[in-house]
């Protein structure tokens, strides 16, 4: 008996490297049954691809230099005609223009996701970028917004019809990311002696890691009794990693911090955090915040993007204004001085993830979306819950 070949989904993104967006793609590929997958990166593909465990997944790098990608359209068109995918799924503005060759190649279902904003357009205020999204999205069947704020942006400022926009929040693998009683050998601190404030994310401007460094250093004045016990852990590489290390060293706090760069064992290290700090200037639905909540950490996050959808102030965490190291330090100091509050928020965050942000719900939503059928370029039947 001949078995039908599963439909192919092409995930087309700017670069396949360490990051929350890419981590979401990995989760989708690893857990979504009934589909084959290919990852096409407009620029390059890094060793991050080793996290994909689904056999037969293809990885294709287009190696585009900086600048407009119009000259790549014929190559992408030919590639899509060769691969014959059932779905092309682009992500963020850096890859959205390739919806045009996907339309020309008559890919049956064309999907575009918006995950958040970069430093050059915080909050999506650029009228030029709004216009580009309208133009590139002319032939796109469905837009996926990862947060309520992005959904409002797409149906408001960008001007998309609401029936073309679907909100699908990230989900977290609560089996992989969970509280743990064992301490990994790489962990440098002792739970009985130290209070660990941790962060996970690429060390780049939009994530604002130096804001967290400044807030941590401010705890020396806010929590003088607890200061000798406090430790800062920042997992992730990037252009601001050395600047963060240098700022800590200049303040005489290097021995109280561990900034090892990129790590492949984040799931084992996260449960060792007491407090998880997310100082970003912009976010969609943060994978790392969800993972930290699933590991039993008490979260402190900036009040941007989708963070308020994950953290309800005083209920399961604390929210602070972005780019405000004093406010971030005050929230961290509060959780440092009040262990009972820290424990309550951690337990509430764990419960919130398990009931509202499961990986199964996310996978089910994308599976239903990818299985949808389109007629020409008309709207799909809504798959929104």
Automatic annotation (TrEMBL):
It comes from the Bacteria. SUPFAM superfamilies: UDP-Glycosyltransferase/glycogen phosphorylase. Residues 193-349 form the Glycosyl transferase family domain. Pfam families: Glyco_transf_4, Glycos_transf_1. Residues 19-176 form the Glycosyltransferase subfamily 4-like N-terminal domain. Coiled coil: none annotated. This is TIGR03088 family PEP-CTERM/XrtA system glycosyltransferase. It comes from Pelomonas margarita.
């Amino acid at each position: 008996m001949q078995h039908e070949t599963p439909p192919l989904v092409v995930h087309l993104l700017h670069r396949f490297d360490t990051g929350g967006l890419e981590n979401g793609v990995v989760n989708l590929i690893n857990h979504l049954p009934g589909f084959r997958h290919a990852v096409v990166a407009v620029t390059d593909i890094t060793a991050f691809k080793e996290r994909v465990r689904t056999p037969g997944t293809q990885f294709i790098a287009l190696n585009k230099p900086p600048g407009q990608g119009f000259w790549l359209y014929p190559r992408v068109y030919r590639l899509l005609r060769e691969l014959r995918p059932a779905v092309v799924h682009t992500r963020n503005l850096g890859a959205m223009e390739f919806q045009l060759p996907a339309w020309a190649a008559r890919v049956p279902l064309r999907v575009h996701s918006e995950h958040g904003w970069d430093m050059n357009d915080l909050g999506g205020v650029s009228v030029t970028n709004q216009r580009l999204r309208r133009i590139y999205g002319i032939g796109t069947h469905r837009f996926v917004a990862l947060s309520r704020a992005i959904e409002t942006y797409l149906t408001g400022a960008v001007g998309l019809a609401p029936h073309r926009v679907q909100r699908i929040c990230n989900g977290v693998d609560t089996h992989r990311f969970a509280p743990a009683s064992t301490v990994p050998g790489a962990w440098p601190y002792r739970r009985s002696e130290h209070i660990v404030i941790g962060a996970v994310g690429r060390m780049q401007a939009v994530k604002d890691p130096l804001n967290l460094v400044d807030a941590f250093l401010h705890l020396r004045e806010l929590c003088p009794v607890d200061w000798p016990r406090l430790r800062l852990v920042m997992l992730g590489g990037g252009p601001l990693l050395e600047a963060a290390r240098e700022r800590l060293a200049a303040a005489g706090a290097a021995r109280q911090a561990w900034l090892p760069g990129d790590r492949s064992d984040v799931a084992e290290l996260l449960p060792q955090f007491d407090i998880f700090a997310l100082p970003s200037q912009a976010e969609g639905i943060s994978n790392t915040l969800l993972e930290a909540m699933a590991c039993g950490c008490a979260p402190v996050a900036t009040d941007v993007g989708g963070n308020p959808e994950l953290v309800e102030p005083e209920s399961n965490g604390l929210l602070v204004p972005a780019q405000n190291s004093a406010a971030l330090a005050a929230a961290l100091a509060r959780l440092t001085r009040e262990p009972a509050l820290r424990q309550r928020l951690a337990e509430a965050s764990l419960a919130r993830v398990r009931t509202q942000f499961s990986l199964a719900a996310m996978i089910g939503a994308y599976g239903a979306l990818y299985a949808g059928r389109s007629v020409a370029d008309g709207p799909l039947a809504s798959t929104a819950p």
